[in-house]
Amino acid sequence: MFERKDLEAFEKFKADEHFVVSLFLNVSPQERKRGTYLSKFKNLIKTLSEEKLSLVKEDIEKIEKFLQTERESFKKSLVLYSCVKKEFWQRYDLNIEIKDELIIDKTPYTNPLFDLLDNYHKYGILLVDKRSARVFLVFLGDIEEYGMVEHDHVPGKHKKGGWFALAEKRYERHIEHHVKIHLKDVVDKFGDFLKDREIRRLIVAGPDEAIYELMRILPESIKQKIVGRTFIEKYASAEEVLDKVIPIINDYEQMKESKTLSELITRSRKNDNAVLGIDDVIKYLRDRRVMKLIIPKDYKIDGKVCVSCGFATQQDVDCCMECGDCVMKTYNLIEKATEMSLQNGALIEVVKDEKERKQLIENGGIGAFLRF
Ligand SMILES: [Zn+2]
Fold this sequence. Notes:
The chain is built from 13 helices and 16 strands.
């Protein structure tokens, strides 16, 4: 897992007179079975000029060897940064697919990773009971245990025996008191994590009584982030926790997707800072007014792009409708819109659910929320 601050540090990396190789490669099990990922890597190398290649010969050799020997440890995709001359080497294993790319430049190429940070949400998982708590982070289909606390001093339930009813009641209050202290301590210890602005959603897990007490003491700012609850065995492995929360996350994201889409459609009908259709979207992208782009997964729109002014349209025009210059046919205006969004710092949301995706395609195939 990577964090924004890691990427920011990479941007400051000084290669001096040397160059950094940045590789983004899908290495999913299917790709590995037939060795496809290796031939894809070799094809990426072929796209580089001899001159450029000679600058990073050692890096390419190192990466090739790594790809051959480490294949067993790969996940779905791989990100590698290498600058042998500066002893710089960084590897990230991702559990999602990314676009294959090989870039040679003075600094590590981090845009695709920043992009992931902007467009995928981090989920915090808080697993509590009356005497312990564990916290996990789920991001890009991966899970990491962040920390745990265990309070041994919380007394256990007393066996029924020679106690007076009154004493028993007092004893229960005594337990409750300790549970409260325990949970308060949990919130103190993990407060920074739970409040972290990058972690915008939380899932809680645990028995009713513990969750009930927890809800009473959690600050409103943390409570608002909770999007689901489940039951997880106290000593569950990270993978078991992930299996439990993935369906909750998928449901939640789908619900959000459909909300976003209906908001987009309603607002664009009212001309309320939202538009649908590629021509309008590109127009507003050129004006740098797009705040968030909404696109369907795996969808293309053909069109024409002006060779000089950047004008683009879905219509079959012979010359630019703005400057009159020549236009070129393009097979993917959505990709063009995506590139422009990245340059403008606009967010991109990909609609994946089949029903919503179809609805977006029927309503122009692309849309955007505008800044103003
Ligand atoms: Zn033009």
